[in-house]
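Dear colleagues,

For the upcoming journal club I promised to circulate an example of a predicted protein-ligand complex. I picked one with flavin-adenine dinucleotide because it came up in last month's discussion. The inputs are reproduced below in full, followed by the predicted structure.
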Amino acid sequence: MRLFNLLVVWFLPLVPKPIVRLFSKPYVAGPKLEDAVQSVKDLNSRGIMATLDVLGESAQAAEECAQAVEEYLTVLDTIQKENLDSNISIKLTQLGLNIDPEFCYDNIRKIVAKAAETATFVRVDMEDSSVTTLTIDLFLRLQKDFSNVGIVIQSYLRRSLDDVTDLLKTHTNFRVCKGIYVEPRQIAYKDPQTVNDNFTLLVETALKNGSYVGIATHDEKLVWQGLRIVHELGLKKEDYEFQMLLGVDEELRDIIVRSGHHLRVYVPFGKHWHAYCVRRLKENPKIALYVIKALFGLR
Ligand SMILES: Cc1cc2nc3c(=O)[nH]c(=O)nc-3n(C[C@H](O)[C@H](O)[C@H](O)COP(=O)(O)OP(=O)(O)OC[C@H]3O[C@@H](n4cnc5c(N)ncnc54)[C@H](O)[C@@H]3O)c2cc1C
């Protein structure tokens, strides 16, 4: 596996863009907002909600962040104009977190304030562990002024139960996922079963305490755990939702929707799709295996 990972990282920059696009096609709506609108309309027509993500991470210049803010404001207008059942997901490093946290805060405030005008929800995605504390700090500031915001918690991080416990004090809306970045053992669980057990614990803790939870996974064992928890707690369909990534295990997605549960699909789009795909594959070559398996219909 290590050799496969090394090969992916080494070969990736040599792969021509059209081939990367071919591989990424099911997972990225396309380079334009129209592509994303089409994907969301498609999902909505199947009774599935969406969350729109303008691709781009770790901006190094203020102009890039200003452009990302403008793009998100346009997305918010489009959600209204096209009557889409969609909210948005944002990444703080795309909005200036690595440049200056105060500058980043001003940027996210602009987006969240505009979203609040139309009661559109804004999910703050969680990135690698170098920005976890900063992301939570800025989120807590936002939460003081706005109710249309929620955050992501990663079950592979050892700190996450403490984070959930703290965030419960302010009635936080959570997305719980396993976490996609490669993190060191000192701070992250490495055993997949422990990551799963922690996922279940985090979802159960948040739901038991009255928080709304997005249960974000394609792992059927965890979907089952989610169903068990909502059943045992006697929750209503409005108290939680399942979440999946665009193009991943559509069969499981349809099973969940047909059972009457709310489901939201994460729809990434934008001109930075190539950089996004390459970075994601380099960060976590395991994803390449998923793509290859999906292309060849393997499970
Ligand atoms: C809606 C949503 C939002 C997310 N937001 C964040 C975030 O803010 N921060 C963060 O760190 N992570 C985020 N993630 C990613 C998440 O942390 C996991 O890395 C990812 O979902 C894979 O974990 P899994 O629970 O699906 O389980 P796994 O055991 O990894 O996957 C289960 C099965 O799903 C399929 N699969 C999973 N991922 C993919 C993929 N990318 N392509 C193709 N097939 C796949 C495979 O068939 C695999 O066998 C998000 C995931 C979702 C669904």
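Two points we might discuss: The two ends are 17 Å apart (CA to CA). The pocket of flavin-adenine dinucleotide is lined by residues 125-126, 152, 154, 177-181, 216-219, 222, 243-245, 248-249, 266, 287, 290-291, 294 (CB under 6 Å).

See you all on Thursday,
B. R.
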